[in-house]
Amino acid sequence: MPARSTLAPPSRPVDEKITINIGCVDLGQIDLLVQEGFYANRTDLIRTAIRNQLAAHGDAVRDVVSRKTLVLGIQHYTAADLQAVKEAGEKLQIRVLGLASIAHDVTPKLALATIESLTVLGALHASPAVKAALRDRIG
């Protein structure tokens, strides 16, 4: 069954923070490029480097997305979406590359009744209670 979802989440998703370890020489080179005006700051250089690598491997990403039948981008589920799935007697297998968002009006009971499995490559936004309820279904 195709995923039932609204077209957009209630608000713009925020960037996710990551932490990396980097050697002093590499960090010094980054700071030099920033100082010389090639980049606005360290984050600008790192984001550019990541985007360049993602673009270089774009064909591989597209192939895997297609093979694993992942939704690419943002997928948002509200209580109304999940209630409709429940009333239809169906369950969702959610697979997202990007952001999967489960609205705060979704109860753990409704999530358990309607979400068979949840695979997210990227970020999952849901209440702590819903995440805890789905813990065994998150792959």
TrEMBL record:
Coiled coil: none annotated. Gene3D superfamilies: Met repressor-like. InterPro entries: Arc_rbn_hlx_hlx, RHH_8, Ribbon_hlx_hlx. It comes from the Bacteria. CDD domains: RHH_NikR_HicB-like. PANTHER family: BLL4998 PROTEIN (PTHR36215:SF1). This is CopG family transcriptional regulator. It comes from Caenimonas terrae.
